[in-house]
């Protein structure tokens, strides 16, 4: 199996693990780990789709990865804001 195929399989498995953990309430969508798994899976599948010259797959996974990265940013921003508000209240 070629390196790009392995990267693609890692991405696919990462997506399935993230969805499984979400579906069985082992993980929640407001946690960074869920979105990190989606970002990693998306990146792996973007790399694989570039190698395969699969434009639709590239497009979907690039957008998916972007949404996951934005969600991580949003969670960090909200967490930092809560910390600032709590320190001002003390």
From the structure above, extract its key features:
single chain, 90 residues, mainly alpha, 3 helices, CBU-0592-like domain-containing protein
Give a nutshell description of this structure.
By secondary structure, this protein is mainly α. The chain has helices spanning 3-23, 32-52, 55-89.
Describe the fold and architecture.
86% of the residues lie in helices and 0% in strands. The protein has one domain (3-89). Helix 1 packs antiparallel against helix 2 (32-52) and helix 2 (32-52) packs antiparallel against helix 3 (55-89). It is built from three helices and no strands. The model has no long low-confidence stretch (mean pLDDT 95). It is elongated and about 55 Å long. With 90 residues, it is an all-alpha fold. It starts with a helix and ends with a helix.
What's the order of the H and E elements? Answer: HHH
Strand proportion, as a percent range, falls in under 5%
Gap from first CA to last CA = 58 Å
Total strand count, please? Answer: 0
Helicity level = over 70%
Cα-based radius of gyration, to the nearest Å: 16 Å
Q: From the helix content, strand content and strand pairing, which structural class follows?
A: mainly alpha
Q: Show unreliable segments.
A: none
Q: Can you count the helices?
A: 3
The tally of structural domains comes to 1
Largest sheet: none
């Amino acid at each position: 199996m070629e390196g790009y195929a392995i990267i693609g399989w890692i991405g696919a498995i990462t997506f399935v693990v993230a969805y499984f953990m979400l579906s069985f309430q082992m993980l929640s969508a407001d946690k960074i780990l869920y979105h990190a798994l989606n970002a990693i899976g998306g990146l792996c599948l973007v790399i694989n789709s570039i190698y395969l010259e699969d434009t639709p797959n590239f497009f979907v996974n690039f957008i998916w990865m972007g949404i996951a990265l934005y969600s991580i940013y949003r969670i960090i921003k909200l967490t930092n804001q809560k910390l600032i508000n709590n320190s001002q209240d003390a």
